[in-house]
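User: Okay, second chain of the day. Same drill as before: sequence in, structure tokens out.
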Amino acid sequence: MLKDILTTNDRLLEYVKEKIPSDGKLLYLIECGSFLYGTQTEVSDKDYVGVYIGGQKNYYGIHYNKFLDIGTTKTEEHKKNTKGDFDIKLYDLKYFITLVIKGNPNIVEMLFLDKDSKSTIFCSGDFLLMKDEIKRNILSKTVINSFIGYMKSQGHLMFSKTKYLSELKKIKSRISEMDGNKTILDCMDNDYISKTFRVTTQNPNLVTISDLHMFNIKDKLKFVEKRISSVINKYGNRINASLDVGYDTKFAYHLLRLSYEAEDLLIKGEISFPFDGDRLKILMDARRGKLEFEYIQRICEETANRVEKELQNKNLKKNICESTLNILLISFLKQHFSKLNKI
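Assistant: Same drill. Structure tokens below.
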């Protein structure tokens, strides 16, 4: 299996290059996620991300592959990574530039690893020059606002899943106290059941429950309980544990991480990895659910205020210069394909 053979960077590179078309090229490969941030634990899986040129067919043909997912294969039954699994995602250079222009935080942070970084697996010399040129042009209101937008998204997700899961557990608990051999229809005279199961407008024989898939009104309660249990179990230990602290620890962690990155990019013009000192401790505590929500909220509000103040004081350009990056991209691709005597 893949997780067994990718034990060294040399083997990893060999595997990745085999997945790229012969007239393409691997440009960049880094370790990302918790190992990049310095927040890995004993059960953390490995994540890699990179940039490649997809070959002539990818640019001249009908089908354009924006990226390649070439990590360990997950089955429908086991969608979550376990220790030893690998996520490897390669972005086609053209799509990578598009995401840079949009200010995607996960793409922007890729620009701030130098070739000697512990997390840099591979970087071609020509891409290193291009990356540094992009980095010099990256700071803009669009990029900072993109970070802020992602922060707001993580803030929303901190509570949405835990709220949903908490509601499901309450419903399961109530249904487990009833006669499992009775159908939903049999129990519609019960106030709780009639309020919990909503009849659909499309079909009076179908009902929904807390945004789950539809049930038939003749389904037995023990079947409903089993379905709810299945959904709860799919959320995994992290979400279930999050109920105890009142927020999803994963999204709290990413909210804090993005706030640190946004502040450093705006004020210092750089993002440094891995995190260390107080920041690292706070991130690890957030992952483990050791922080009160009010504390997380205060840190993020203070950071947001500093970012907002800096945005007002700095005369930042509105957008990344798209024409500059387009010229870089065209020149890079022409040079690559001309070496192969393709154009």
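The longest strand covers residues 25-32.

User: Thanks, on to the next one.
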